[in-house]
## 1
Amino acid sequence: MKDIAYEELQAFEGRAAEEAGRGKDPVNRPMIRHWCEAMGDGNPAYGGADPVAPATMLQAWTMGGLSANGGRFRAHDELFALLDGAGYTSVVATDCEQEYLRALRPGDEITFDAVIESVSERKTTKLGTGHFVTTRMDVRVGDDLAGTHRFRILKYAPVKQRPKGERPTGEQPKGGQPKGERPRPVVNRDNAGFWAGVAEHRLLIQRCDGCGELRFPWLPGCNACGSPVWDAVEASGDGTVYSYVVMHHPPFPAFDPPYAVGLVELAEGVRIVSNIVGVPYDKVRIGMSVRLEFRRVDTELELPVFRAVDVAGGAG
């Protein structure tokens, strides 16, 4: 891995990645329907006589398909070639932000411009060392700005994989308490109430003030009626395993795989993703009864987890 002068990377900031791009198709009912079916979103606003497209489809209207992207983003190609040549050969998407300014309706013709908004100085993460690259896309209908999409990736040189069986310095053998801190949750204005509840050992569910619909995870508005007004109710803590996966990824310092991550259906009817504890990972089953508890995972962080109920030979 070789150093790149940061000024050389900064020169890409403000460069157009796409100019006067056009959506491959106008906004249309079939794509809205497919999106809503995939998301399980039955909001009548998306299928009535005068429907609007779900706001979160913003980027979908700009996509050119698998065969239509070659050569479109030349500035990205040049930047990534520079980073690849310096040894930053891996890439991971880190986050995206969208701002919605105008509803999109069937028949709207989409145009868009994309720009490399920023390239960070060199950063060191648990994955490796590299640079964050943020791209902003402005989506328009005619002269109206419909929304803005920011997409951020990390181009990095991965940490060298340890030889099989070797553990990081200070990490206890499998079965002991893993060392290191968990990644911190992103707390924002939309979910701060949830994390405040966790700090009090309460699992809070949003309840729409307009129609009474319960929702989880926390959202700024109701999927059922669109109302932005809500309060919160405390979950009883009873649930069942609706689905689950077993994580086998390489051992990061704060984790000790394999372990089970479940999609738990609460007694109130909403679902939450969390760890299943109190039973070996290979004994977790769909339909298993679980009970909420709060577990301290490091010196500063507690998380809601679910303990298997009435399981013989449980562990953990």
## 2
Amino acid sequence: MTTVVTIQHPAHVHFFRHAIGELAAAGEDVHVFVRRKAPAVELLRYYDIEHTVIAEESDSVLTLPLTQFGYEYRLYRAVRSLDPDLFLGVGGVAAAHVARLCGADSVVFTDTEHASLTNALAIPLASSVYTPSCYDGREGDDHVYYPGYHELAYLHPNRFEPASSSSIRSALDVEADDDLVILRLSNWDASHDVGAEGLSDVSEAVESLEAAGGTVRITAERTLGEELEPYRVSVPPHLIHDVLAEAELFVGEGATMAAESAVLGTPSVYINSLELGYMTELADRYGLAYTFHGSRRHDRGIETATALLADLDDRWRRRRQAMLADKTDTTEVIMRAANRYLPRRVAAEATV
């Protein structure tokens, strides 16, 4: 059977990469189509996943609609001769639209409640939608909730084992006894980030974290400026999760990396005006994260981060184990979702 996987963000590579391998090993014909967004193509090459680039990265939020239209048009032209059976996508606008044009099924995975435009465009045309059980809302008639997070498709212990501490600290120029703090700055270029805000003063945040004893390294896709550029993490993109696992603390504006840190057992301070169900659950139910959205979010978040640096112990490991006891390997969810639809063509052909 023919399965099409759509990739529009580097995190989608991680989300699908194990499922792509398992589908191919099961004899499925898998085709991966990607919009060029750094470092998505680099990751696909590193994991030796065959792929086709069919659209460039959008220049800004204003050009996103045109870029999306071009992506969907090129996707349709690329797949119509493949006679696809199933489309898989995160967010899933292109997957749901082109699947409908091809007479195929589509499964949309989402965990972002405030992605209202994306959800409105994708979900009504999708065959089914899958979300973590903590997702706040109901999306259509075939909405499947599962006990997990997107990040557990690739960071569940079944899927991930961190690199050695010494190799990661050497790559970051950090000493063995330093309290490593990863500071994540968002690029704010996604449609669901319009109007969102995070840290109000990055330089002040770095100064406060250093004064509390942290050794700060910054991961960001945006320009940092002369003062902050020396703090930039410069490891290959496939090693970023090893970096998060090695850190004593994560502070940042990006929800994906905040959740990745939390599920790895690294305490996560998420500073963003937008709220998300999975971050709320990681904070309130498991104590693996701290979320700051409203007024004085910067000040309150940095105050919490500096306090955590003064009180590091092994409670994060215990909290992570409690979370993992409740949650599933999300790659298994992807496979179950795909297998709901892939037998249909076989059954249909058998009756001819």
## 3
Amino acid sequence: MAVQEDEPTARLKAYEGRPAAVTGVGKDPVNLPMIRHWCEAMGDTNPAYAGPGAVAPPTMLQAWTMAGLSGQRGRTSPYTELLGLLDELGCTSIVATDCEQEYLRPLRPGDEVTFDAVIESVSDRKTTRLGTGYFVTTRMNVRAGGEPAGTHRFRVLKYAPARERPDEPRPRRPRPVVNRDNAGFWQGVAEHRLLIQRCTDCGTLRHPWLPGCNACGGPDWDTVEASGEGTVYSYVVVHHPPFPAFDPPYAVGLVQLAEGVRMVSDVVGVPHDKVRIGLPVRLEFRSCDEELTLPVFRVVER
């Protein structure tokens, strides 16, 4: 028996297939300075991204289309209307959930990037630990010099925040996304071991886990266990939004491990306003509930 959609869901699904952006134009052509900044931030030393004949890292696909603080020409009224309708339905909060990218050709310095986007899907009403709302997926087709360069799917949850009652148990922390590329990392964490991938062709260590080496492109790898020593390379203090299961403000650090790779995790052991770049930290494993263990870094007293 077919299940009829409720009236709000039917109104939302009417936006599927309508444009979210038309003939958008990247604010800058693909250029070496932005590629360099990206690679420095990611710790990516692949020589393909520097010097004569350089190409842009494929994962920068979305970066060339981003609007920045001043906004982007090309956004259409259907997308704005959809977000407004969700606000009217009480779904006033939003969180990005995931993205998928497909690469069709490398982007090179000097390429002018253009794009179109469509509202690909609006889910049925879903209840999550954050609240009740709808997943909205947009698909962006990116071109360079008029040629297809890639596809970027971006999914958000627009939701009405859940209200906690005093008698309700504390919500659990969100589960990490475990897939075939990072399952070994999370298995190590469950065993209280922090495993770093190592390319068996060139010996380069890498984190986060990837299906291939970002230095030589080799597909084969093994692992080394991190010593747990590190320093705070950079950090942010999260004040808002106050998601269930989190108690802002708290510090999230980009930690430089002694082995040379960096990873993002909570910095604990001192108040959030005492965290500083360069602080020594040591790995520990925190049990969040009966199913979830996470690596965190405790500041080492000097």
## 4
Amino acid sequence: MAKQLEGPILPFLRLDAAAAVPKFRQVQDQLRQAILKGHLRPGTRLPASRILCEEVGLSRQTLVRVLENLKAEGYLEARQGAGTFVSAALPRPAAIPRWQKSLANVPDMPPPRLSRIGDLSRQMSADIGQFEPMPFLPNRPAIDRFPFALWRKCWNSVTRGGKVAALGYGDLGGELILRQRIAEYLAVHRHDPCDPEQIVITPGGHAAFTLAVLALADPGDGIWFEDPGPVTTYNLFHTLGFRLCLTDVDGDGMDVAGAAARYPGARLAFVMPSRHHPLGVTLSLPRRLALLEWARANDAWILEDDYDSEFRYDGAPLPSIRSIDSHDRVIYAGSFSKALYPGVRVGYLVLPPQLVGTFRNLSGLINRSVPVETQLVLAEFIGGGHFASHLRRMRGLYAERREAFIDAGKVALAGLANIDCSESGLNALAWLTDGRDDRAVRQDVLEAGLQCYPLSDYTVATPRPSALILGYAGVPTERMRPYLARFAEALSRS
């Protein structure tokens, strides 16, 4: 019985009793058009004839006639013992995003009336990560080395038997077992213990930033923001109506003294102390202490993005700012996008106790909850020791790939660019010689089948020499030299 119910639901099949066209012709034409327009794609199995008869209101004899006609025309094919399918020999329609199709169909329509945020969203890009994963794509972990078999075992363990706990909305702050596992991880690996009740789970790091700024600042309030800095985060804060207080970055990280002098009344500071993106520098201890003192004295907040803290190749990971905060001014944001894989979409905030209730409520209003199944699987993965083992393996792998990148890059890029590879993270910078424009050079790199980001895209106000951001973590060691040779050829053509 279950097999007979297989196949898509076809709501477009409608009979018009008043039409002059015979019923069989109406159904035949509607099915043909659905196939031609790509609504029924090649290889799609149609419902059993008995089911179609009941749903459409035709006799079985008439429906068989329709199907036989479409088979004769080449639109359908019968497979012995399996049923009737849309012919696999038909060309598949090009996969054009629906929003592009809609824009292409109405090029002359006036722009719609939008809210202020909606209007800004039209102008602000959020496409980081949408690029084809070509070699040297920045921020890309070695996804091919992720232990998917172990992940699947954890998934099967928490969902076996259709456990009710995995099927509901879940706790507004995130599943307790996952918050406990994250607290244990932070205590051991970041030397930063916290109570699981201080943690709120979010659908990724970007959602964590959104939750924090909406809870702590009003539109028009100032936010310290490093320049250069992550472009999508800048676009997010700008679109939400906050005033971006751009601060310089040097070898010691954010210029805290300069920011305090220029923007003393800012409401919040967004900072990446463990590894700045894209420059790769770390915030020095004197500046961390100065930042904490500014926040205390001005009743301000620090949003700490613990970017790439898991991957440090020279010594232990640096302590977080939160771990030395004695006045509860730091909101710590972490995620699993780089440590596991970007599509996992699980992030978290560690909050001062007085903010927990507010953040839980706001998270419930905005996100409701992160998929409970994913949270439980991640908790099982961490609790079983698989996360720590994976991090250990990836640190070793990325250290090897980093060394191979530096060694091969010095030779291949001599006279073209200077390699700057920080002691942590997944990316490196290639500072271009001769003052060439990094945006123009990137086009040549893309044409060579490689990927990179221009540093200019991350810079708002402070002029910087031209550079390209390259991700080495996703490139196998044995492919590093030939890919860098191809990269050098692209630079030579610029």
